[in-house]
Amino acid sequence: MEWYDKFLSIYEKPFSEVPQEVIDQTRENLAALQSDEPLVSIIIVAYNEEKHLQACLWSLSETKCKYPVEFIGVDNESKDRTVEIYQKAGVTYYSEHQHTCGYARQCGLNQAKGRYTMCIDSDTIYPPKYIEIMVENLMKPGISAVAALWSFYPNEKHTKLQLKMYEFVRDIYLRIQNINRPELTVRGLAFGYETANAKKEGYRVELLRGEDGSMALAMKKYGKIKVIFDRRCRVITAYSSLKEGSLLEAMWNRMKSYGIKRLFTKTDHYEDAPDNFLKSKS
Questions:
Q1: Which of 139, 168, 163 minimizes the C-alpha distance to 152?
Q2: What's this model's pTM, rounded to 2 decimal places?
Q3: What radius of gyration do the chain's Cα atoms show?
Q4: In this structure, how many other beta carbons lie within 10 angstroms of the beta carbon of residue 281?
Q5: Packing angle between helix 101-111 and helix 211-219, nearest 10 degrees?
Q6: Sign of CA dihedral 147, 230, 117, 77
Q7: Which helix (H) or strand (E) holds 174?
């Protein structure tokens, strides 16, 4: 049995099917963790995530962390029961009416009181030591940001063996990429940074995607981006980023698209694709 199996028992289910004891326990545990003087702010962003948010919050409620934390929700103007889930979990949330991840993440960052801030995606499940390990790495000298890796859960299309093969090959690629381009390994679902520096830079809200990588790139001027390969820090997420065939086909397509040359060169500048803007530059 995997650590995340119990959270998957309600994952992809409407909120009406979540047992009341899970809702009550989540609220009680989160309240016990919440601090008025946090070292780290946990920002949870959601848009129409009724079928995932409760599982995410349930996993966060079982956090084992020796540092004081605060949980802040952001609702990107959902049309389902997302707001109700925040309310029943006792999580203070803010509404963001501009519809991009950049706006949603910036909304949460604006409210963060901790020295450090962690990004949390509501379709993702977090292991109990995740926050503590991320914070301990952020506290190391010369580190301005940290990122953890992600895995997918087995289902009818992807077996445990297939997932292990995929992760083995992908992680080798990411380790090589991490030497010169750690910012490209950053995903918003498992990303942390020093709050003050992030507030100076701000998220790029005009982008449809890539706001996490842009923030990671900005953090490089303040120190090193550390990618954490510790499996105790590895999160479990949805398959929304894998739309092409099998897992290995999806990875191969990405490697062909990105190319190999970039693995062996450094850069502090990336060109934005013209179709990646919320509004035209004109």
A1: 163
A2: 0.92
A3: 18
A4: 7
A5: 50
A6: positive
A7: helix 160-180
